Amino acid sequence: MDTGARILAAIETAWEVLQERHPDLPDVRVVVDAGGARHNLAWPEDSAEDARPELPVRHDTLRAGSRALVDQLLHLATHALCRLRGASETSNRGIRHNKRFREMATELGMAWPQGEAPHPTRGFSPVPLTAEGEAAYAPLVAALDATLAGVDLEELEPERTGGRSGVRLTLRCECLPARSFQIGPTVAATGPIVCGVCGAEFTEK
Prior knowledge:
By secondary structure, this protein is α+β, with helices and mostly antiparallel strands. It has helices spanning 3-21, 59-64, 66-84, 99-105, 131-147, 185-188; strands at 29-33, 54-58, 90-91, 96-97, 169-172, 180-183, 203-204. Helix content is 35%, strand content 12%. The chain starts with a helix and ends with a strand. Residues 158-166 have low confidence and may be disordered.
């Protein structure tokens, strides 16, 4: 399986594991990209196209390893639960995380350290895993380690300086609903990326 498809499948599977533990979590459309500082799901304005929210995963998170990926997915899952339950969990353009975010995070195995003040800018973020949460998600981290073993993450294009990424391509396969991810044109041009589910090549549609 090509690098892009393998990474996409690993992230999708990890999210499905979270969904098994927390059935309220929505189906998502994974986007792997170098740019942007978004740490929340992007919910579609027009549900006629694809009602699934977009789940962003940054290249630097993937390079940091499976534990960092699980931490990010849990953070995004906390935002998703807040959205679904009508809880306003952030302020200051999504940067500061409030008590509602902290409280929702407990459902996912995280807890804010007792007596510790919130961060002056980020508020209650990130909320660390408890010892029980560490143990609960250890099999998922190990599974991701095994799945991504040998994957050359250096194939992922680095971020450009100045905080902005270059042109990205969104590739989709023939699955229904289609699986998709973003990739740099240089990496995409090295050869076809084939979906391990439908067998079709990921193409720009």
